[in-house]
Design brief:
It is globular and about 75 Å long. The longest helix is centred in the middle third of the chain and has 24 residues, at 300-323. The protein is an alpha/beta fold. Helices cover 19% and strands 30% of the residues.
C-alpha cells in the first residue's frame, strides 16, 4: 500500500514583486523579493526571512507588503537557505546569523534603501530576526518578532520545563519531518499509533525518498548551537516589539524572552509588548470556535480583517524606530487584551497592580472522579493527603487540540477529558465576582511514580456553568525522581466570568501533541511496549501542592 504524500512547491512570484538571487558570503544564492512603492525613492526596509515559501498564500506576504509600502516602507522577503527557490543545505536553525547579516548588507547597498532596516514576522521568521540581532549589523534598527522565541532549535521547545526536562513535542517533530527535508515541503498524515513511533516517520521518509536532517537530530538527541554569534541577549540592543498570543503554543518561550530582556540593562528600555487573545495561526478567542467566514486561512475577507491587527502594531512601531515620524512615548509600553473584556495598556507586565495568589490542591480523594473532583482551596489542609493517577500508553489522554498551532480554531470542550478516571481534577469555588488573571501561572506539585521516568501534564481550564471546559493555559515537565516540581503554565490575560470556575487537570500523557513516555529507561522513540505506571500526588501542609496565579484586584480590571 502506498503512503500518500502531497509535495508543496513554490508559488508564482507576484507581478508587483521584483525577484533577486542574493549572494551570501559562501556563494550560495538566496531567493529574495522586493516590494517597493517607488523604487527611485530611498526608504526604510522591512525584511522577513522565512522557510514557508515567500510567495505562498500561507504567509500572505503580497498583502502584508501592500500595507507596509502604503506607509512608506520597502519590503524584502526571502526564502531562507535550502528552502523553495533558495540554494544551499536544508537544515533549520543554523546559518541564519551570517545569512541575516549578508542580506541586510545587500539591502543597504540598493538604491531604494536609505540604510535603515527593521525585521518582522512569525515563528521561524521571528527566529531569523533574533539571528540578525546576533549578527549585530549596524543597519538593523528594530525588530517585531511574533509568536516565536530566541531558544527555538531542532526540537522547537514550547515550554519552560521549570524544575525538570520537557517531554518531547511530537508536533515539532512532525514539523521537522514535513518542512525541513529539502527545498519543498511535504504534507502527510502520521500514524502515531505505530510502535515504535519512529517507524511511522520512516514510512513517510520512504515515500518521499529523502530524510529530514532536523528530524534525525531530534531522534538522536543532538542539539545544534542556534547562533554562531553572541546570544541575542548579549548582542547590541535594538528596540523590540514582542507580539504574543495568550493561546500560542510558543507563548511560554516567547514570554521568557520578554521578561528576561525587560530586566536586562541596555535592553529593558527598548522592550515593548503587544499580547492578544490569539493562537499561533492568528485565530482569535472572540471568534472561537471559528466559523468558515472568520477563517482567514481559507476566506479572503477574513484574511483582510485579520491583517489589519496583524500589521498595525508593527507599522506604528516602525514609524517610531525606523522613520522617526513619531516619538517613543506615543507607544504604550504594554498593550494587552483581557480575554472576554478587551484591550488594556500598562507600564509593565504584569501590570503594577497585579499580585500573586495561591490556591491549594485539596480533597485529593475526590480528584480522580468526575468533575468537580477535588478542590482549589485558599489554604492547605493540615498533614498529608494523596491521590493517584495512572499512565497507560494504550489509553493516552487526548491533547487539548490535535493541532495546537490552531488551538482556537476549534477551541474544543474538554469536559470529557476532565471526567476520565486517569486524570486528577481540582476546581475552584463558584463566585459571583469575576477573577482577572494578568501574568504568569505556575503549578507547584509534589509527585512521584512507580516508573523511573514520568511526565506530568497540567492544564488550567475555564469551567462554565453549562459544564463545558475550555483551555486557558497549559504546561508540562518530565521527572525522574520524587519530589516537588514547578511547572510554568505560561502568561495570560484572562477574565474568569461570574459563575465560572477554574479547573486544574493533571495527567500522565498528552497525545498526539507529545511523545508517550516509555515508562522505563528505554528510548521512547524505539520502544515497542511502553510500560504502564502509577503516579502519586501529595497535598496538604507538609506537601503543599498548589496553583500560583497572578491576579488583578477588581479595581485594576
Amino acid at each position: 500500500m502506498s503512503f500518500p504524500v502531497q509535495r508543496v512547491t513554490p508559488q508564482p512570484v507576484p507581478p508587483h514583486a521584483k525577484p533577486h538571487m542574493v549572494r551570501m558570503r559562501d556563494g550560495v544564492l538566496l531567493a529574495t523579493d522586493v516590494y517597493a512603492a517607488d523604487p527611485g525613492t530611498p526608504t526604510p526596509t522591512v525584511l522577513a526571512r522565512l522557510p514557508y515559501d515567500k510567495n505562498s498564500r500561507y504567509v500572505f506576504f503580497d498583502k502584508i507588503a501592500d500595507r507596509f509600502t502604503a506607509h512608506g516602507y520597502t519590503v524584502v522577503v526571502q526564502d531562507v537557505r535550502g528552502k523553495f527557490r533558495s540554494q544551499g543545505q536544508t537544515l533549520g536553525w543554523t546559518g541564519e546569523v551570517d545569512d541575516g547579516y549578508d542580506t541586510i548588507d545587500w539591502i543597504v547597498r540598493q538604491p531604494w534603501s536609505n540604510g535603515i532596516v527593521g525585521m518582522f514576522g512569525d515563528s521561524y521568521y521571528g527566529f531569523t530576526q533574533w539571528s540578525a540581532v546576533s549578527s549585530e549589523h549596524p543597519a538593523l534598527r528594530a525588530i517585531v518578532p511574533r509568536v516565536t522565541c530566541t531558544s527555538n532549535g531542532p526540537g522547537i521547545a514550547t515550554y519552560d520545563a521549570g524544575s525538570g526536562t520537557q517531554p518531547l513535542w511530537l508536533e515539532g517533530t512532525t514539523y521537522q519531518a514535513q518542512i525541513w527535508v529539502d527545498n519543498d515541503s511535504y504534507e502527510f498524515d502520521i500514524d502515531l499509533s505505530r510502535r515504535p513511533i519512529a517507524s511511522a516517520y520512516e514510512q513517510a521518509f520512504g515515500a518521499i525518498g529523502k530524510r529530514s536532517a532536523g528530524f534525525d537530530l531530534i531522534a538522536s538527541g543532538i542539539s545544534l548551537a542556534p547562533y554562531n554569534g553572541p546570544h541575542p541577549y548579549d548582542a547590541r540592543p535594538v528596540p523590540v516589539l514582542h507580539c504574543v498570543g495568550w493561546f500560542d503554543n510558543l507563548g511560554i518561550a516567547h514570554m521568557r524572552d520578554y521578561t528576561e530582556l525587560a530586566r536586562r540593562p541596555g535592553w529593558s528600555a527598548l522592550q515593548y509588548l503587544v499580547a492578544d487573545t490569539t493562537d499561533h495561526e492568528n485565530y482569535f478567542l472572540e471568534n472561537a470556535p471559528v466559523a468558515p467566514d472568520d477563517d482567514h486561512l481559507v476566506d479572503a475577507t477574513a484574511l483582510e480583517r485579520m491583517l489589519d491587527s496583524y500589521t498595525g502594531p508593527a507599522i506604528e512601531f516602525f514609524d517610531v524606530f525606523l522613520k522617526g515620524t513619531a516619538q517613543p512615548d506615543s507607544l504604550p509600553r504594554v498593550r494587552w487584551k483581557l480575554a472576554h473584556v478587551g484591550w488594556r495598556t500598562s507600564s509593565t507586565w504584569p501590570p503594577p497592580q497585579a499580585a500573586e495568589t495561591e490556591l491549594y490542591l485539596d480533597d485529593p480523594a475526590d480528584a480522580a472522579g468526575a468533575v468537580p473532583g477535588g478542590t482549589l482551596a485558599l489554604s492547605p489542609t493540615a498533614g498529608t493527603r494523596c491521590a493517584q493517577w495512572r499512565y497507560d500508553a494504550d489509553d493516552l489522554v487526548p491533547s487539548a487540540a490535535a493541532d495546537t498551532f490552531m488551538q482556537l480554531r476549534d477551541h474544543v470542550d474538554e469536559r470529557r477529558t476532565l471526567d476520565r478516571d486517569d486524570v486528577l481534577v481540582f476546581t475552584s469555588a463558584t463566585s459571583n465576582a469575576p477573577l482577572v488573571l494578568a501574568g504568569p501561572v505556575h503549578a507547584v506539585l509534589h509527585v512521584e511514580s512507580t516508573a523511573p521516568t514520568f511526565d506530568v501534564f497540567v492544564r488550567l481550564l475555564d469551567l462554565a456553568p453549562d459544564g463545558t471546559a475550555r483551555l486557558v493555559v497549559r504546561g508540562c515537565v518530565q521527572a525522574d525522581r520524587p519530589g516537588e516540581v514547578e511547572i510554568a503554565l505560561g502568561h495570560t490575560g484572562y477574565r474568569v466570568r461570574p459563575g465560572h470556575r477554574l479547573a486544574l487537570m493533571i495527567a500522565g500523557s498528552d497525545f498526539p501533541n507529545h511523545l508517550p513516555n516509555s515508562g522505563s529507561l528505554e528510548n521512547p522513540w524505539l520502544t515497542t511496549a511502553p510500560k504502564a505506571s502509577l503516579q502519586k500526588l501529595r497535598t496538604g501542609s507538609t506537601h503543599p501542592s498548589r496553583l500560583r496565579l497572578t491576579v488583578l484586584p477588581e479595581s485594576g480590571e
